[in-house]
Amino acid sequence: MLERLPTTAQLLANYPNPFNPETWIPFELAEDAEVTITIYDVPGQRIRQLQLGQVTAGRYVTAGQAAYWDGKSETGQVVASGTYFYQLLAGGYTETRKMVILK
Question: pTM score, two decimals?
Fold first, then answer.
């Protein structure tokens, strides 16, 4: 049986959450799109940007497919425990969710 494509883009809850030191960020796309996931701290500073490039419509929910974040900043430093936000930008779609790092 052919799996149906999602009807809308969607950003799903990261797992595990809370996490230490790494997490997966699942998402779904209704159509092919250039995908970027950006991680922010509570004051809104950009911590890390994950450029996934052109992604085909479908479900990216398993550890092998979902976006992966190693808990490090752009400069390679391990980020502190606390609350962070992750934002999916896919074509014209954007959504933000919250995650927690516990060390």
Answer: 0.93
